[in-house]
Design a protein that fits this description.
The chain has 553 residues and is mainly α. 46% of the residues lie in helices and 9% in strands. It has 26 helices and 16 strands. It has a three-stranded antiparallel sheet with strand order 3-5-4. Strands 10-12-11 form a three-stranded antiparallel sheet. The protein has a two-stranded antiparallel sheet with strand order 1-2. The relative contact order is 0.04.
Length: 553
Amino acid sequence: MYRKEVALSRQKEALCRDWSRLHRTKSDAVCPTCMAESPYLRHHWEHAYVTACPKHRIQLVDKCNACGEHLSPMRLYIGLCACGNALDSMPKVSATRAQLWLSTLMTGKGQPSGNLKPISQDVDTDVLVKVIRTLCLHPDPTKPALPRGAALPKTVAEAIEFLAPLDALLADWPTGLRSHVEQRIAAGRRDARTLNTLLGDWYISLRKACQGTTLEPLLQVIINVAAEKSECVLGLDSAKAMAQDATKYVRASDAARAIGVSVSRMHDAMHTGECAHRTRRMGTRGQVYEVSCAEVERIQKRRAEWISDITACELANVTPVVLERMKAAGVIRSDIRWREDIMKGGPVERQSLLDLYTSVDRGAQSAAVAEDATLTWSEFTSRRMGEKRAIESLMKAIASGDVKAVTRARTLGEMYFRMGDVSQHFGTPLLEAGMSIHQLSKATGWKWESISHWMEEGLLACESIQLRGQPCRVVLPHQLLAFRQSYIPLADLARAMNMKASALSLSLRGIELVGAKGLPDGALRGGLLRIADIGRLAVIGAKAGYDLFVPAA
């Protein structure tokens, strides 16, 4: 218990030393009612700016009403004056609102000020003293400041007189302070372009003392009034954020930084009318461009609708190569010249990417397909699949619903598609698996025109692909096998029999010739014989007992 009392006493002594010249040492100030309850000196009574008792809401007294002398710290008994007059019997004078506000804050270094406004908690006494000194040394904007010595009152009466301006400043908070600021603005320099110049040292001192503390509401009131009643450029000092809250405007450079563009680009947008703004005079000839916070928010929202390539790739779960193909195919909205539009924050419209995913996901038809027979959207690359134009054609088909996904997924890049649906748009894999008309003609000796005609007649099945931007028909092995099982070219049969095709066709007048293409001179080329017809003819010959295919001597 003794150690706690010693520690508390040391703490109070250290605090009194911090008060410096504001520590009452010549006389004591007391609250008569407190002395009646318990005759001992309260620690906070020793501060020169404490002039009232917050508990009993009366003024402190430091002068005996019987002998007229100040209460000496050297008197024999704390509860009595040196003349023997009891301190609890001295007159009680009600304290003013400002006296109670200040004394409450000074009591206990930062205790809540109750229902008094401006309410501040955890107030640093040193900061509070600086603010009070500035407010009371400059009570009248039309007159010079009071001497600095006036801020060091020796008695309660001097302190009450020095602190009297607080009554008007704190009256009907914040009306009193607003009225005082308006008077200072009216009395300020007419050619002032900044708040520091208009309000001078009074504002500068308050800004340095209040900013970043619990007394910031006082500074905010000053800036709010300046925004309404003056034409000064605000926000050029450390109170920039508070000025922006008051004016709802920011400088062009700050707006550019918030939006994500250069200052020069911001100025270009202002000059072209893309961005609403206002101008304020700065200095003798200069101008300051300001943009409203609402305009900045509007532009930020518009720019957020357009995203960068990196963000788009992450959103769709695709590689940059696939994203480029999506742009070229037009399945998403993109703008290569997006930097020229301040309303676009990137080259890809975010909503178009979401719409594409929604469309593909809605049209997906779940089906059990082997994993090796499927392909994901993220694998649509020219290195893997072939022609870029074919990839773009496939993406357009998927976007239009002609090709559907077989599974739903969390992102577009993870959606699977049937290889059969996909392969018809890609030339290289099919070409590697089969043969083009030219390759088939070279391998079999058949005429290019004949093969093409067979395909057009539907006798020879094929796949249509895009190869280097041009249409190309490819015959796959199973399609060629089906053709050979059904037909045999007349020329091949004649070659096997060492005959001419024309001579053989005359010998087979009873057999129908299919797939022949008529030439301008009336001749036929590329005739086909059905394997079934040849088989039936062979059976008839076998039954007749002689070979129908023996060539004439």
